[in-house]
Amino acid sequence: MSGAANRRFGIAYTAGVVVLASLAAAAAGALVLLAIGASPWATYVTILTGPLQDGFGVSEILLRTVPLTLVALGIAVSFRSGILNIGAEGQIQIGILGFTAVALFLPHLPRELLLPLALVAGALGGAVWAGIAGVLRSKMGVNEILSTVMLNYIAAQIYTFLLRGPLIDPDEMISGSGTPQSMRLTKSVWLDRLFTGNRLHTGLVLALVLAFLTWLVLWRTTFGYRLRAAGAEAKAARYAGIHVERSLVAAMVIAGGFAGLAGAVEVAGVHHRAIEAISGGYGFAGIVVALFGGLHPAGIVPAAVFFGLLLVGADMTQRSAGVPANMVLVLQGVIILAIVSARMVIANPYAKQRALDAARRWGFFRDEKATEGGT
Amino acid sequence: MRTPGPIEELRLEGITKRFPGVLACDGVSLTVRRGEALALVGENGAGKSTLMNILAGLYQPDQGRILVNGEAVHFRTPADAFERGIGMVHQNFMLVPSMTVAENVALGMRHLHRKVSLDLDEARRRVVEISKHHELPVNPDAFIWQLSVGEQQRVELVKTLCLGAKLLILDEPTSALTPQETDDLLDRLQRMTAELSIIFISHKLAEVKSLSKKVTILRQGRSVFSGSTADHTTAQLAALMTGHEVSIPKNSGGGTPGAPALVVKALKVRGDRGHWALDGLSLEIRAGEIVGLAGVSGNGQRELAAALAGLRPVVSGEMTLEGRSLVGASPRQIIDRGMGYVPEDRHHEGIVPPFTVKENLVLKDVATRRFSRLGVLRLGAIDAHAATLKDRFDIRCASTAAAAGGLSGGNIQKVILAREIDRAPKVLIAVYPTRGVDMGATEFIHKQLLALRETGAGILLVSEELEEIMNLADRIAVIFKGKILATVPAAGATREALGLLMAGVTA
Predict the structure, then answer these.
(1) Which of A248, B224, B369, B473 is the most buried (most CB within 10 A)?
(2) CATH assignment at residue B64
(3) Does position A2 have pLDDT exceeding 60, yes or no?
(4) Distance (Å) from the C-alpha of residue B355 to the closest C-alpha of chain A?
(5) By a Cβ cutoff of 8 Å, what residues of chain B touch chain A?
(6) Contacts of A238 in chain B (CB under 8 A)
(7) Residue A55 covered by a domain
(8) What's residue A3's pLDDT?
(9) Closest Cβ opposite residue B372 in set A222, A229, A350
(10) φ/ψ (deg, to 5) at B419
(11) Residue A109 included in any domain
(12) β-pairing, B427-431 with B458-463?
């Protein structure tokens, strides 16, 4: 049997497992929908096709693609380097604070200077926040999953405190409504809109460029090589003279930088001020996007578009079918389970062998000689 | 539990098994009768394990039949095979470390599983009975993690026998054992053949000859020889196994060693449990010589190698490479000063398994100007480098873009050796370089080490195999409890004398 036939079976097998896993996820989601009295079919149709009815829907999908892509790129860097960043949510908030602080305190700088400075401050905020977990892990062996999750809580409290106190919009104090949000930021830190009539902004271009750069750094530079080596097999990396602890910190800082930048871009492109609940769970959804995209930029971008579709679609079902938008969180959970299970099955040689035996028995897959004679 | 009846005769007829891309077994037939020990011999990838996995019910054959006492049987699961009294002891032990011996045995004895509890007393009783009957001493209440590798091996045997096996399949049972443990195991197996049948997978021909009268040799999925071990020398069997004449490379002793390259003086290093793993060890390796470090594993070899690589802190003492101290230097600095390293655990320390072969070949040198410029990889140079080394070191892989972790042990070792030797080290530390590697690859690795010696490098060869050390080394140092007990010239060394030293007996 030839390598080509082998590869063909491998691809068919992987595709089959993925399709089955997706169907299983859909079925499990349908059970939940039935339980809350909604029609699964109508809900799925709305989620998957509703946002694609017009250009505005598409623009809203792409709008959500931006933060999802940025967060997921950072997650991919950290996971590939052997450190699991679960703290993107907190890093987003600290990033927003960095961006907002620069925009509030230096409003008179020219746009060419202020916008990059504020974006860098956002990235730096996330990087520092994630760096804490990175240093704790490399110096003291503190489990990064615990520390990043805990840092999420701390970041949330700091964020709320600042928005309700020092950073609150003075107008809110005067009017007395007390909505926890910052002053509207100077227009010179707003990202340009790509089109008129919708909210899509130049952050999309930034995200795509960074996706390409991430690929370049991970697979085409010595720095990326060292990160991946340390992540794939830390022992061998150590024996080869790679400073694994240093690369863990670097990976965490990069991951935090991406998350911080995602927060900054979200403010600069969409809200133009820091508000509560701005992230909408992008920090966690980004993990799913990264895994769904195979921890590779070329997979992450389409995965982010798909999850953008789910998010917008979920909003629509809330309006049209009365299904709560939180259902999308349930679907996310089901999808994570499906991905993880599918990966286990794909990586299991015994399962693959059984599938091959079955395929042969049913005549779907012939050996090379038979194929040559037959077709 | 139904105890299976005795197996008077087991016969495999024309077993064929295809995997994607390979014909693992191609019409293999063999016969084992009661009281026989059949050796199944072949190089890695010859189809031995596949054939035995079929017999044990893990795989289904594509063609061919299995006959027990003349009756055709079909094994769909390992449980089916056990029903007929066929039990397999795998190369990697299948034991739960945090459980006791009796608990591990009880795991497989379904009839002892009550609704909420386990009849452990019965399991204990069986363990004691079987271990007494077959002279396989094990303590049923010991935890697996407390046992040495040799003891765990005995537990595996007892476990399989407790489940009623009448025919034992042993997949390379000696690959992780010390020479003494190996002799001991072969001795016990010999006695067990009085009432059982054994199929013994190995590629160590000396063991095969000492245990088995009958041998079947597989090569590339085909049975190329079935017959008596007594009529053939190990060299003849080796030629049948590899398909060509095997010459065992030997150090002819030529050349005069140069200046001291690596000097270790009164080195003290702590082990993982805080004890003195190296307790004032002194050793000298000169340029152009191979020093064999003989010893039972666990006497400080691992810690010495790690200290020399800069991965384990030195408490006191000195180690110098060409006069410069290595104490406190980082792994990178030690590499840059000319230290090469073939680590013990090739899958986790020697290579990054998901990385491609070509990526692994530049693991230590990716930042040099040869393979990168301003931090950007020079893919062309990396490809060319891999192509050269693949040919020179006979690395068998479909492509150098294949993941190194998917290669056989021997080929992984060739990747590591290629990387280390091509860097032209001043000193090479090779830790168990041929453990679990088949004969063809072993021959190749030995030749490469001798060739490196000719270029004037000093080599520290850590090994448990006395043959390997006696064939390759100029001098032999015996390590015992963290110290060098004696250093003798290889020319006058005998197996017996070294064996005594390894056991800690001096004078």
Answers:
(1) B473
(2) 3.40.50.300
(3) no
(4) 8
(5) 18-23, 58-60, 309, 311, 330-332, 334-336, 341, 343, 345, 348-355, 359, 363-364, 366-367, 372, 375-377, 379, 398
(6) 311, 331
(7) no
(8) 53
(9) A222
(10) -60, -45
(11) yes
(12) parallel
Query: Nearest CB to A236: which of B60, B336, B352?
Result: B352
Q: Are A288 and A336 in contact (CB under 8 A)?
A: yes
Q: Within 10 Å of residue B366's Cβ, how many Cβ atoms?
A: 22
CATH number at residue A248: 1.10.3470
Nearest residue of A to residue B367 by CA position? A222
Could you tell me if A163 and A274 are in contact, meaning their C-beta atoms sit under 8 angstroms apart?
yes
Alpha-carbon span B27 to B44, nearest angstrom: 18
* Strand ranges (E), B90-171: 167-171
- DSSP for residue B115: S
Domain count for chain A, please give it: 2
Q: Tell if the CB–CB gap between A236 and B22 is shorter than 8 Å.
A: no
Min Cα separation B414/chain A (Å): 16
pTM: 0.79
* Same domain (yes/no): B226, B323: no
B chain contacts of residue A221, beta-carbon cutoff 8 Å: 372, 375-377
Contacts of A220 in chain B (CB under 8 A): 376-377, 379
> Is residue B152 a contact partner of residue B180, using CB atoms and an 8 Å limit?
no
> Are the CB atoms for B425 and B448 separated by under 8 Å?
no
Domain boundaries, position A16: 1-36+326-375
Q: What 3-state class would DSSP assign to A267? A: helix
A79 to chain B: which residues are within 8 Å by CB? none
Same-domain status, A318 and A345? no
- Strands B63-68 and B9-19, by their bridges, are antiparallel
How far apart are alpha carbons B481 and B475 in whole angstroms? 20
Over the stretch A63-121, which tens digit does the pLDDT of each residue have? 999 999 999 999 999 999 999 999 999 999 999 999 999 998 888 888 888 999 999 99
Provide the domain limits for residue B276: 260-338+425-502
Torsion of CA B102, B103, B106, B108, to 10 degrees: -120
The conformation of residue A186, written as its DSSP 8-state character, comes to: P
pLDDT in tens, B298-325: 788 989 999 999 999 999 999 999 999 9
In sequence order, what DSSP letters do the residues of B248-304 get, joined into one string?
A: -------S---SEEEEEEEEEEE-TTSSEEEEEEEEEEETT-EEEEE--TTSSHHHH
Question: Which of B23, B60, B349 minimises the CB distance to A239?
Answer: B349
Instruction: Quote the ipTM score.
Output: 0.80
Top residue of A213, A223, A233, A348 to mutate, by most chain B CBs within 10 Å, is: A233
Q: What stretch of H or E contains B247?
A: none
Return the structure tokens found at B150: 């040799």
**Looking at beta carbons, which pairs linking B132-140 to residues 24 or more positions away fall under 8 Å?**
B134/B158, B134/B161, B134/B188, B134/B191, B134/B192, B135/B188, B135/B191, B136/B161, B136/B188, B138/B101, B139/B101, B140/B100, B140/B101, B140/B102, B140/B105
Question: Are A367 and B18 inside 8 Å of each other by CB?
Answer: yes
- Inter-residue contact B404 to B356 (CB < 8 Å): yes
Q: How many residues does chain A have?
A: 375
Place of tokens 């180690």: B319
Other C-beta atoms closer than 10 Å to the C-beta of B259 total: 10
Q: Is residue A373 part of a domain?
A: yes
Residue A348 lies in a domain: yes
Cβ–Cβ gap B354/A233 under 8 Å: yes
Alpha-helical runs (H) found in A165-240: 170-175, 203-220, 222-232, 234-239
Query: Same structural domain for residues B163 and B203?
Result: yes
If you measure CA to CA, which chain B residue comes closest to A235?
B349
